[in-house]
Design goal:
By secondary structure, the chain is of the alpha/beta class. Helix 4 runs antiparallel to helix 5. The strands form three sheets. A six-stranded mixed sheet has the order 1-2-3-4-6-5, with no helix packed on it. Strands 9, 10, 11 and 12 form a four-stranded parallel sheet that branches. The protein has three domains: 116 residues, no CATH class; 71 residues; 48 residues, no CATH class. The termini are far apart. A hairpin with a 4-residue loop joins strand 1 and strand 2. The protein contains five helices and twelve strands. Helix content is 22%, strand content 28%. 18% of the residues are buried.
Length: 239
């Protein structure tokens, strides 16, 4: 359907959803009807279940601008004269990056649009590097410092990286200094002293495994296998 604004020499086209999903590519033949000098299409969809949209067909429809909706992440397609404005604010923890709105101007020279960041906060995925000298308290302080640097108004999904003391397990429930951490995962590896472990386990499976991989470079696949294998064998011992 079409709504006209004669005082603006503008016609706006669009359609409503009659069900939660519409798999028909309704916009492929939704050509502008030239009812007004300027014409805009409002098109909600873009994936296979919500009115598929082929970008290469949009420009041929004849609109001065196509305002796209459904995808939360802002995307500008200047060559087709289209844009997804995205959500004004991030919706969930994986909805990262800037959010805001699209502002545009339309006149005899054409249509010009640009993205205006306007969200109060962002979801940020942040890695925090750990070393083997750090305690749970010092890890929390490093997280606090990085949050202060990136902005305490934001919301964080944090991943701990690096090497930790083999005898320490961090309390991930105590890593939220400002109440804005939605998730913490620990991907650190135990910083085993392989030389000492080899000396203590020369005559068993652990020692033979360490000896077979000990001399590889730290950035090699073999060294990674050494770290993960020793961790698995040590955990089996504890069990």
């Amino acid at each position: 359907s079409c709504v006209e604004f004669p005082q603006l020499s503008l016609a706006v086209y669009g359609c409503s959803y009659h069900s939660r999903e519409i798999k028909e590519a309704k916009y492929d033949n939704a050509f502008a009807r030239k009812k007004q000098r300027y014409e805009i299409l409002i098109a909600h969809g873009g994936d296979e279940k919500h009115i598929p949209i082929q970008r290469n067909k949009i420009k041929a429809l004849g609109y001065d601008y196509v305002a796209l909706g459904h995808i939360h992440k802002p995307q500008m397609f200047q060559e087709e004269g289209t844009a997804y404005a995205g959500a004004l604010e991030p919706i969930d923890k994986n909805d990262v990056g800037p959010h805001g709105y699209v502002r545009g101007e339309m006149d005899d020279k054409g249509c010009r649009v640009w993205f205006v960041p306007d969200a109060e906060r962002e979801y940020v995925h942040m890695d925090v590097e750990i070393d083997k000298a750090m305690t749970g308290h010092s890890v929390r302080e490093r997280i606090k410092a990085q949050i202060e640097e990136r902005g305490v108004q934001n919301l964080y999904k944090i991943t701990l990286k690096g090497l930790r003391d083999p005898d320490i397990l961090f309390d991930l429930g105590d890593m939220d200094p400002y109440g804005n951490v939605v998730e913490v995962s620990d991907e650190t590896k135990p910083a085993y002293e392989f030389g000492r472990l080899l000396e203590q386990n020369k005559d068993n499976l652990l020692g033979k495994f360490i000896e077979s991989l000990l001399n590889y470079e730290k950035d090699s696949m073999e060294y990674q296998a050494l770290c993960e294998g020793v961790q698995a064998l040590m955990e089996t011992r504890r069990g």
